[in-house]
Amino acid sequence: MELLKFAGMFAGGLVLLLVGGRVLVDAAASMAARLGVPPLLVGLTIVAWGTSAPELAFNTISAFKDRTDLVFGNLVGANICNIALILGIGALLRPLAVGEEVIRRELPILAATLLLSLLLGVTGPDGFARWEGAALLTVFVVYSTFTIVSGIRAKSRASPLAGQIGPSIATTTTRSMVSCAAGFAAGLVLLGLGGSLAADGASGAAEALGVSPTIVGLTVVSVGTTLPELITAIIAIRKGHVDLAVGNALGSCMFNIACILGLASIISPAGLPENGALALVVMTGLGIVLLPMAYTHNRTISRIEGTSLLAVYAAFVAFQVYSAVAAPRGIGPTEDAAGPGPAAPLSPDGEERR
Fold first, then answer.
1. CA distance 152 to 239
2. Which domains occur in the chain, in start order?
3. DSSP labels for 9-45?
4. Tens digit of each residue's pLDDT (9 = 90 or more) over 26-47
5. Positive or negative torsion for Cα 289, 139, 102, 104
């Protein structure tokens, strides 16, 4: 009965995510066309920040509760999902054309930020200290300001991004700004509720099946909190808004690692958990490898490259699951194997029996 309840929660969450993703994409595309700004800018900022709202709420609360391992695993795992899983699935649906602005500016900035987080995390004994969190948060503020100002300036001149507003978006300009804002807000609410419900349902179902909580945390929590980005990206790509999907994934990565991890580290400094350095290396490597992928195949992320990204994600999850399953569980008979052994039973007079 418990399993059926959690399965129903997961299914209901997916329905809310599908509806919310469609409402959000339509409102964002209409808003971009009415404001005369590229959909990429909307994807990098408003949509990316909005679909990362579940991560922001989840990890801020976790940081206040001093659950730093959970914060680290969720944010790094979410970024790996954004790059390897979401862009991988997106490329399988349709080769992802990468605009000139993304190649020249967004991807290098993202790769540099991920590399900075790797260096901050692995150097020094304290993992992410408060000053390192403040440094990441500063990077996010500077990047966001630069992106918004550049997007506004692009309105007054011919920009390579301007041509990305295709006929499918232009047809939505009949919506008023009030309608766009209302649709956007409704989409965010549905995505937040759907992501929370789906993640809770999946976690509960996994525990009801007897799956290790460690495995649930490494897989379900990270995937569950990125479901809004995944659903939004799939809907955007199917509706022809590839730039919105790419911008959403890249913007979410920046928001996760620079804003949320920075804020969480200020609230509660965290050391690296077990296999944390490896996770940071995988995340950073994926961010760097996007650069050559974007330059090749006529500046698209092809289906072959999308398959490669998905293979990396599958291998990473498989390794994490294997590590969790293979880790020693019981207390060994000797102190050398697993700490002190069980205390010897006592005789009625209080002495240990030999």
1. 25
2. 2-327 (1.20.1420.30)
3. HHHHHHHHHHHHHHHHHHHHHHHHHHHT--HHHHIII
4. 787 777 777 766 666 776 677 6
5. negative
